[in-house]
Amino acid sequence: MKKIVVSLMTICVVAGLIGGGLFADFSDIETSRDNYFQTGSLDLKVSDFLGTEYQDPNVPAFYMVSDAYPCCDKSIFIDLENYGQGFQCQPWAYLHVKNLECYWVVPKNVWKWVDSTGAEVAAPVPEPPHEAIGTGFPKPLNEPEYVAECGGIAGEDVNGNPVVVPGIGVCYGEDCRLAEHVGVLMYAAGPYKEDEKPATSADVPSADWRPLPMPDPNGDGVTKMNELVCVEMELGQIPNNYGMWLHISVHFQDFDEEDAFAQGLIPTTYFDENIPAEAKWDHWPTNAMQKDGMKFDMAFELLQNKLP
Fold first, then answer.
1. Distance of CA 295 to CAs 97, 254, 292, 298, Å?
2. pTM for the full model?
């Protein structure tokens, strides 16, 4: 019996030693609770020159120009701000012009209704796209527009003889050629910290405005509206809680004979702009763009990384 008791005690001691090795008497546990992983944000807001802020789907048309004339310039100023939170990198802002559409503007004062031969017609012209009445192509025109589009007498030569031109085509606005004669320039200022940004575009120091690189596929030094379609215009970086002012200038250009000839729209040039008496007729093709219009969308984009 005594041997049995001793054996049991020995087993307990060994078990205690083993237990002490696996489970220490002293311990301490610190628990980090409520850990989380939360992403930052980019939040682009667009404001007009009056400071009114907009976000989709309520961003209005900023560019609304009517009754434009050759060689006129129209500018708009737009404020872009990044109201994102907790974003450490500096995202890039872009302007994407898309959905360009040209059309013909119904004139307020109709000179006469004519067909392609110049004969007056009594029937009203349907809304675009136009439908032929008989064998003609009716359109309300004042005389210069009709001559530029359908052909006719555009002026006189140095001897006083009438000069007949062939015309460059009716409904010039509906094939978007108007966009080929509208030049675009863009400037940017900033980015500025939210509490340091000029309140209006007029408050931006002149030295802050910098011209933005513009695409020039034709190499003529002028970017046309049709050349901006589907191009991501890089505006610059706008970190969180920073803003940038954008200046967009649009110029309606003259369209002279040399351009029309180069584009194959007329067989030759008819006037020499170096002769003062004839200079006023050199840009007669511009008349074809009377009562033409175009509309387009401007998408302002803020991306985490710079596009390739």
1. 10, 20, 11, 10
2. 0.77
